[in-house]
Amino acid sequence: MKNFYVIGKNIQSSLSPFIHNYVFQSSNIDANYTIKEINDSNRVFDIIEQIKNGIIAGVNITNPYKKIFFSYLSSFDDPGKEIGAINCINYNSGKISGHNTDWYGFLKMLESNNIKLKNKKIKIIGSGGGAKAVIYALNLKGSYQIEIYNRQNIHNIIRDFSNKEIVIINCTPYHFLNNDKAIFDYFISRKILWIDLLYTKLSTNIVEKMNQNHKEFYINGIDMLIYQALASIDIWFSKNISKNVDLYGLKSALKKEINA
Question: Cα dihedral sign for 80, 200, 31, 55?
Fold first, then answer.
């Protein structure tokens, strides 16, 4: 049996094991995927050694280690090079290579939700690996008016009262709609599409307010998580396994898992 892991910090609620193990089981693949939480970046070297020794067949990387793992590898795919962060490591024929599948997951999320961004004003919150993957993906699609914000200047978004349709893409681990009333009020009072790369649930109170008249303007990161996971599996096994995955069945099972 091949062993795969998601590596990160504070990831006990990660849905990645459910998604990968669903695909492994439904595709009759003898493999297992679990969480390996590390709280110290010094552990990164140990993970690399386990991959080299064949103990670990492959890993996904999440916050806060996407850029740290990058510095330990010498081979990358083109998106990984340009983005400067990886979320997938593959070991094949004695060679460890880094990949970025987040950009692909983001594009597929837009596609599956029929999101058109042309002629819209795009505001990205965050400057880490997730944000860089989103910008890379958008650049592949065309030329957009993009503005970058962080936790320190995010309230400058509220001052934008242009007539142009606004799309906000939150690439941070912080739930602004849950935890920042001023930001939520701005979102709910205007025709703003909010995309969270986060897939953890919003509070019941917030969801109820959104359901009244704004539900169609919010998208979480579940689809992105699924598609980047499928891309990782294709890389690990050097096969187009994802084309035979029952996406409807996977999403239905996932919704049951999270009681959505």
Answer: positive
Interatomic CA distance for residues 213 and 230, integer angstroms: 33
Residues 19 and 226 sit within 8 Å (Cβ to Cβ):
yes
Which residues have C-beta within 8 Å of that of residue 226, sequence separation ≥ 6?
Answer: 19, 105, 247, 250, 251, 254
- Other CB atoms within a 10 A radius of the CB of residue 71 amount to 8
φ, ψ at 73 (rounded to 5°): -115, 155
Closest CA to 130 of 196, 178, 70, 78: 196
State which residues of the chain have pLDDT below 70: 163, 213, 215, 260
pTM, two decimal places: 0.92
Predicted confidence at residue 215, as pLDDT, reads 67
State the Cα–Cα distance between residues 86 and 213, nearest whole angstrom: 38
Tokens 């987040």 -> residue:
102
CA 27, CA 233: separation in Å to the nearest integer? 11
Q: How many whole angstroms separate alpha carbon 37 and alpha carbon 17?
A: 13
Residues identified as active-site: 66
Beta strand 31-37 pairing with 95-99? unpaired
* Three-class SS state of 186: helix
